[in-house]
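BUG: 3D viewer hangs when loading the predicted structure for this chain

Environment: internal workstation, default settings.
Expected: structure renders.
Actual: progress bar stalls at 90%.

Input used:
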Amino acid sequence: MLCILALKYKLHRTKIMAHPVNESGAAAAPKTTFSAPVVVPALVVLGALLVLCGAFPDLADRIFSSAQSWVVGHFDWFYTVIVTMFLVFLILLACSRYGDIRLGPDDAKPEFSFLSWTAMLFAAGMGIGLMYFGVGEPLQHYLNPPTQLAGTPEAAREALTSTFFHWGLHAWAIYGVMGLVLAYFGFRYNLPLTMRSGLYPLLQQRINGPIGHGVDTFALVGTIAGLATTLGYGALQLAAGLNIVTGWDTSTDTFRVGLIVVVVSLAGLSAASGLDKGVRRLSEVNLILTFVLLGFVLFFGPTVFLLQAFSENVGNYLSGLVSLSLRTFAYQPAQDPAWFGGWTILYWAWWISWSPFVGMFIARISRGRTVREFIVGVLLIPTAFNLLWMTAFGNGAIWIDTHVAQGALAQSAGNVDALLFRFFEYLPLAKAVSWLAIVLIALFFVTSADSGAYVVDAIASRGDPRSPVWQRLFWAAVLGVTAVVLLLAGGLKALQAMTLVAAMPVAAIMAVLCIGLWRGMKADVTHARQDLSPATSFWTGQHWRKRLEQIVHQPTASDVKRFLQKTVLPAMRDVAAEMQRQGMQAQVHDYSEQEAGAEPGAETGTVRLVIPTPELRDFVYGVRPVKRKLPGFMLSEVADEKETTRRHVVEPITFFADGREGYDIQYLRHEELIADILRNYERYLSVSADQRTVLLNRAPGHTEGT
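Structure tokens produced before the viewer hung:
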């Protein structure tokens, strides 16, 4: 619910977001929704990076690697503190009154089921990383621990604690902060679902200017670079797995490029089918196969040891969480001086560089959930699974290496691409399980690519929901082409270093976003506390028989339409006429005669009274027909036998520009409706005069409270 001065916003929206109308009267889908001030500079910068990394890979590697080393060497403390602050910030929000705020209007419902939501969180965030590092990271920490003697039980304990730390609460706190900021300002403030919207409390109308364009351009380039780098490395891992399983020669560029083409093509098909059909279904398949693979390792591996180790790993992680969170090795460096920068800081920078992508996708799928639900779900659910996964594969690999393989796994620890498949060789059904892992890795890359196409398109079009399918396909192709060029030219390492260097300004921007989020929520809570004046209560015992008759007779769509025409509209017109007589602007909009089946988002069947206010959100008192399922007990108690065949009722429900939850007004008469309009207008004036709610009062209004 919040953005610029109302008049200026309307003018801007008319220019940028106006819906062209076709001959039938419905809004026609635009040919493109690209935001030129964002897309053009982003493509220019991306093209320059491709030329540098593709034509001069060695030079690019030296430039970006030197920059990365300087950032890590001088600002490791900054990454340590800022990431810990993100986690603390989210915990404070979840435990505060702000946790009750819903990501959307007060009556918004979650778009996806809890299972689907969880599956998409997992698939878009770290799924492929778990497949790649599940065996490799714990084993490498075991062989090269930061403080303990390598190859000892103490080293194994520290290896899993370090891995938990890198893949646990802190990582998801980074994603959670970005996702919460975007979801809150996108769905609660009704702003575009882009990174610039998080700066609204600080910049207000300036988010639509050069600063906002620059932020979105930065996010667009970073997202494409990060995704393309991941696709490139993913092709290398898939090739290694196929080589081990099939014996094929997968080291050629032709084969690797072919893998990228297949992955991007499948991602394009998924993106074209839509978020609900494509991304959701693939994510759910991913989740099922992941649990199958995890269950296999737990069952056929050292089961008792793994369960014991999981309990102890969680205990070690939680007991040392505070010291781990703020550890910088200031007094005594790690045994390997490069360990801290090469692991912890590298992870923090990588998660931060990915936060615009993952955060925006998480925001897109989280509409309708409360802030507390969002934080608890994003922090705890993926973290819990990550910890179990790392125990099964990490502890399992260490146990097999020391008890079965006699150090053979340790000898191949440097080849992370193939390490997972070497691990499967010591388990039953190795061939079948390796094929399952290959399929799972491929699906993870497809879901990363198709969700990436969605996110990139959202940034490029300023969150326009009418974006045509060809744009998502275009961005999927851009991701594929970028990955192919860099893979062939050997520029993946340089681009990865560049994205990690870019993480530092992103971290600073995220800190500013947290300040903006706090200010926005403070205004939100203050706004919600302003209730209707008790002096305006109008209910009496008059007309009680008529009201009882209405209660017993459940209204139909025709009843509500008649009520709108005979009672609501005359009351609104009387108020508007009186205000105009006193020199104020007021308009009544009647959409009650529109037929169902109009363009999604149209105000079909609604009526509204609008009182424009310069520099503020307009006052809107609207009524819309809402279909509600009839409770079973009421079906058996209705007076009319014909009513028992009807399973739904339609009620006239109010809606307001500030997104407050509406209420049923079917029992009000003409004068009482006028009183209800005036009491809401009184509240509007009272809230508008409160400086604490100025951010909310200047934001774009909701249309129908949905």
